[in-house]
Amino acid sequence: MTITDQASGTQPHPPLHTPPHALHGTGAAGHAPAQTLTRHTRRSPIDIATAVPVLDVTIPVYNEERDLEECLRRLHAYLRGMFPHSFRITVADNASTDGTLKAAERVARELREVTVVHLEEKGRGNALRKVWLASPSPVLAYMDVDLSTDLAALGPLLAPLISGHSDLAIGTRLTRNSRVVRGPKREFISRSYNFMLQSLLGAHFSDAQCGFKAIRADIAQQILPHTMDTAWFFDTELLVLAERCGLRVHEVPVDWTDDPNSSVDIVQTALADVRGMARLSKDMVTGRIPVAELRAALARGPLPAASRSQEQSPGSSLFGQLVRFGTIGVASTLAYLVLFYLCRNLMDPQLANLLALLTTAVANTAANRRFTFGIAGNSGVARHHFEGLLVFGMGLALTSGALALVHSGALPGGTTPDRWLELATVTAANLAATAVKFLLFRLWVFRRRPVPANAPADPAASEASLPQAPVPTTETAES
């Protein structure tokens, strides 16, 4: 990739191949030192007297020759007239094959605040990650080249980051104070996707994909290296990770007008996002993303005089838990039936039922512990699995009793039940056990224990015992 600015061709950013660890904690101009990222109730305000631009707005583009120049001039004029601090506009050209790069460089030669970065790889997520990790500015933002979002929302987007009130800020098209013009197809897909995020991943933000976001650079340096997506799921990955790390996400209702000429394939993007959700869930479960360590370093602590009850019961809505529990239950039931059918060919039905149910019960307890009730780390894991096995015993009793009933000669003429009747019987019994299992999980196994009055004051001391689902820190500037 190459970097150019207005006329000199100099390189205002650090080299974009600089590894993240080389940038972290260096105390470079505009970045908060690493020691400020401790578990406090508030962040330090951004130093607006820094020698580097306070704001770096990235415009990721791919084959946008037609719209780019108008976008840059409009955005530049707005920032010059309305933004009270220094700024830079960075065009991140990710492997365009038309005249996009030449158009960007032409504008950059005329407008001093415009910089152009060319990358050989495609992907919005890839472009944003590389440009943001290399930028010296303390506040980083991005918006789509079509400028569908009214720029009047830029001030409210950036103010909480500059003041230290929030860590990330996003525009949202899905609150009652947002004003949106777009077709019913895009509206339905957008709302359905965000509903899935809130139900399956316990997300609290309302709009993952609005192309209007900002982040503090000190926060970006910590969490961007743990993101992997190179395309559209990057936004969701960043926001989910931010919430899991206990960061504060500020939401701004926006006025948004759909671009009818957008080249984005909505259906393919939605499918890629679903695959991204599965991959992100796996990464957090397997520990590829060290959520507990990041949370210990970045999360805002509770207010000094406040109870930690709210922080300790994230994602606790009954509906969300039911959706996640039901999804895991469907997967467990299918796995149980497959195992039962395979084992039944080798052994009697009661032993096949025991092995199939025990195997899926352990996996089911672990999955519900992590996803349905938002508990990560090793604290209490032995107790949870022990109590889960007690619940499993109830399920075993129901299914074994049902099997014993159909094999007891209760069928007309004393006929022996076939395999499909066995499967139907254990399925019905398993579904009944599932309903009782949810109540026991919610009210007993994974019930939040009250914090002792003499608990250590240092939140980091008990970090491993905190649930790691998203904390309810997302806020919306609606009123």
From TrEMBL:
Which Pfam families does the record cross-reference, listed alphabetically?
Glycos_transf_2, GtrA_DPMS_TM
Q: What does the record give as its pathway?
A: Protein modification; protein glycosylation
Q: Which intervals of the chain are annotated as region Disordered?
A: 1-38, 455-479
Residue ranges spanning the membrane: these are 322-343, 389-408, 420-440
GO MF entry, a single one: dolichyl-phosphate beta-glucosyltransferase activity
Identify the keywords attached in UniProt to this record, alphabetized: Endoplasmic reticulum, Glycosyltransferase, Membrane, Signal-anchor, Transferase, Transmembrane, Transmembrane helix
Give the matching Gene3D superfamilies.
Spore Coat Polysaccharide Biosynthesis Protein SpsA, Chain A (3.90.550.10)
Q: Where in the cell is it found?
A: Endoplasmic reticulum membrane; Membrane
Biological process, per Gene Ontology: polysaccharide biosynthetic process; protein N-linked glycosylation
Known EC number(s)?
Answer: 2.4.1.117
Where in the numbering of this chain does the Glycosyltransferase 2-like domain appear? 57-223
Compositional bias (Polar residues): 1-11
Where is it mainly found? endoplasmic reticulum
- Asked whether the UniProt record includes Protease among its keywords, one would answer no
Q: In which domain of life is the source organism classified?
A: Bacteria
Q: Which InterPro entries match?
A: DPG_synthase, Glyco_trans_2-like, GtrA_DPMS_TM, Nucleotide-diphossugar_trans
Q: How does it sit in the membrane?
A: Single-pass membrane protein; Multi-pass membrane protein
The record's catalysed reaction(s) read: a di-trans,poly-cis-dolichyl phosphate + UDP-alpha-D-glucose = a di-trans,poly-cis-dolichyl beta-D-glucosyl phosphate + UDP
GO cellular component terms, alphabetically, are: membrane
Q: Does the keyword field hold Cytoplasm? A: no
Q: Where is the GtrA/DPMS transmembrane domain?
A: 324-446
Q: What class of enzyme is it?
A: transferase
Instruction: Identify its protein family.
Output: Belongs to the glycosyltransferase 2 family.
Q: What name does this protein carry?
A: dolichyl-phosphate beta-glucosyltransferase
Q: Which organism is it from?
A: Arthrobacter globiformis (strain ATCC 8010 / DSM 20124 / JCM 1332 / NBRC 12137 / NCIMB 8907 / NRRL B-2979 / 168)
